[in-house]
Amino acid sequence: MQIKVKKFSELNPYELYGIMKLRVDVFVVEQKCLAPELDGRDQDAIHVWIEDEGGVQAYLRVLAPGVESEYPALGRVLTSQKVRGTGVGSMLMEKGIQVTEETYGKCPIYLEAQCYAEGFYGKHGFQKISDKFMLDGILHYKMLRP
Fold this sequence. Notes:
Elements: E1 2-7, H1 13-30, E2 46-52, E3 55-63, E4 73-79, H2 88-104, E5 109-114, H3 118-122, E6 127-128, E7 133-135, E8 138-145
Parallel strand pairs: 4-5
Antiparallel strand pairs: 1-2, 2-3, 3-4, 5-8, 6-8, 7-8
């Protein structure tokens, strides 16, 4: 497993394809979420992913303060079915938090979590700051890591 961190302009076509394929496989196909996966925010994001010989296995993006929240935000957090339950998701979150702090300093980090994943994010210091709300047909919580 290899962790990679790049800005959009640094991604090569194969990396971009692998990232987008996994996002579509999980969010659109697996979760049957018919929402715009390409939302115009990728070009200004920092992309963090883990890959192996089979390709991209886990991914998240770091958004600047003011894009999704007043704080930096993590988004599009996902793992492939192949690596779920193996600790790869936690490795990804730790790297995402590290990249966010290196880029924006020690500050709160925001994310919108699917409700079923609240415990996972809680293990990484995120706390619920909202009631459940519907986003793209899936229940979410707003969460903050102080």
